[in-house]
Structure formats: structure tokens, C-alpha cells
From TrEMBL, chain B:
This is Lipoprotein. Keywords: Membrane, Transmembrane, Transmembrane helix. The chain crosses the membrane at residues 12-30. The lineage of its organism: Bacteria, Pseudomonadati, Pseudomonadota, Gammaproteobacteria, Methylococcales.
Amino acid sequence: MLTGTYSIKGVPTANLPSVVAGFRSEGATVTTIPQDDGNWTVIAVYPETVASPETRGAEKHT
Amino acid sequence: MILSKTKINSIYILLIIGLSSVFSGCASHFTSAPMADGHLTDSLVKTYSEISLDSIYAQGNKGQAERNIEINKLLTLSEHNYQEFRNKFYAGNAETQLGFDWISLGLSTAGALSTGGAAPILSGVSAAVQGAQGKFNSRFFLEKTTETLVNGMDTLRATKKQLIIAKMANLDINEYSTEEGVRDVLDYHAAGSLVSALVLVAAESGQAKQTAETELKVTEDELAGIRNTTFTDTKEGQLLQKFRMPDGVNIDSKNEARIRDWMDRNGLKDQSPTIFMTGDPRFDRKRKKAVHDLNLTNN
């Protein structure tokens, strides 16, 4: 399971839809930021993993 | 055959005169010895089979130019014999004549070698060659490894020759004596043996394996940690993207599963498929492997 923040700089406009769709399919929330050179920076934030109650319980006993 | 000192000196004078057109051996100026023609090398072989190392030293130790002339002549002899051996080896006729015949180099006079520093080198190499001889008779071996071994010998000799040339050009007689030069030529000559080539090939393959393993480990560690990268448009990336999203926007779940499975099995379990496909040249090797493994080359 992916977690944390990933980013790709310099994404051409033509490739932007597939890059965004790719990150979204992986469960990320995607933000696109235009660059001065006409390309895009794509930031993908994946949700942090939330430990299940069973796991948390096990952690307390170790 | 023992010649009188006068006769030896006469031969030397003739040789030096005869060689003056081949070697530009004036003063300390040095040029590498070219391949000599058959007549010259025949003459050199004949002459050196009759002259001891002591007399070579006596000539060469007069000065840098004389030293360079002596070393040049020996280099020429070595090159001549190496080329002959090389040709025989390529032709598959080297089973009974591994490496060089030291006598042909003209430095095998027992008395001369027994007093010189080259004796241990010579005996060691000879023993190694003789010991290995039986192992090289296989036709398979000759056919499959000729190129590799010749390349190994060429590489070793080129490296050693460069060193000799540098020493001849830059060191005076006090810094680089004729004795040392002769030892270097013997070492250079010994590099033209199959034993030397095998040692080099074995060492290089071992080193290459270790380097590859180290690179692989570093690369996988790095790849797993890449979070911020720059878009890289590669042929392999496009093939993978097309496989993942045939229409450019919607994911093909079946193909997506295959890509993720491949990434799991190739050290990229915790990496984003999008990053892997579109980012960073460091993924190049992995992308190529993925395209190959997933058989996407014809898509």
C-alpha cells in the first residue's frame, strides 16, 4: 500500500491526463501545478495507512 | 653458442646501423617500435639468440637513447612473436605451442637469465604454461574462447606497453635502467600467454559480477525510495503506459494487475506504477526489463 507524497515535475500537457489518471487509480489525491515552461508538476498524496484495532491491540502487547 | 666479444660487438654495430631507419632512436627522443618486417625480425631473433643479457645491459646502460634502442628491439621481437602466436591461435593450431617460445625471444641463455631478475618470472610463467597446456587442447575451448582470450592478451600487453613507453620517454637511465627495462619487456612478453589472459578474464568477470550486484542493490534501494522525480519520456515508458491505459485515460485492470505483479517481483513493491513508468532515468533498466518480461515490444 502506497503512502506519503509523490511528485513528478515537467509533465507535458499531452501526458498530463494519463499521469493524473495513473495516480488516481493508485488511490492518490492529485494536484496539478502549471510550470513557467508550460509543463506541469503533478503531486500525488496517498492516504496514510490506519492500523486496524486488532493490529493496534497486538502492538500494545509487544 | 658462445661468440667472442668482438663478434658480438660487431653484430651490435650492424644491428644498430640497420635499425636506425626503423627506430627513430636519437638522443632521448622516443617513438614506439613499429612491427618489423620479416628480414629484420629474423635478424633480431638470430642475434639475440647469441647474445647474453649482460651484453644488452652493457650497451643499454650507456644512456637513455641506447637503453631505448635495446628495449625497442626487444619490444619488436616480442610483438613479432606475439603476432605469430596470435595468428596460430586464431587458426586453431596453437595446441602444442602455448604462449611463446622463450628461446625465440633470445633471452633464454641460461647464464644470462640465472643472473638476472627475470629468471623467477620466466620460470614461473613457463611452469604455469606447461602445467596448463593439457587443459587447452580442447577444440571446444579453442573455438569458443579464442576471441576472449586474445582480447585479454591484447589488453594486458597494451597496458604494459604503455607503461614501458612512458618510462622510456620520461625516465633517464638512472631512474629506469636497462635491466629494469628488460624485466618490463619480459613481463610484457609474458602477458601474451593464455595463462595471463585466463587470469585476467577470471578477475574481470569476478569484478564485473561484484559491480553488477552492488549496482543492482544500490539501484533497488534507490528506486524504492524515489518520491520526487522528473517526467521522462521513454519508448519503454510509453509501451508500459499504453499497456496500462490502452485509451490513454482508463486503466485496464487486467494489465494493471500484471504490471503490479511484475513490480512486486522486481523490487518495486512500494513504488508507484505511475512514477515507475513516467519518471526518472534511474528506472530505465527496470522499464526495459518490464517491457521484455511482459512481452510488450510488439504492442
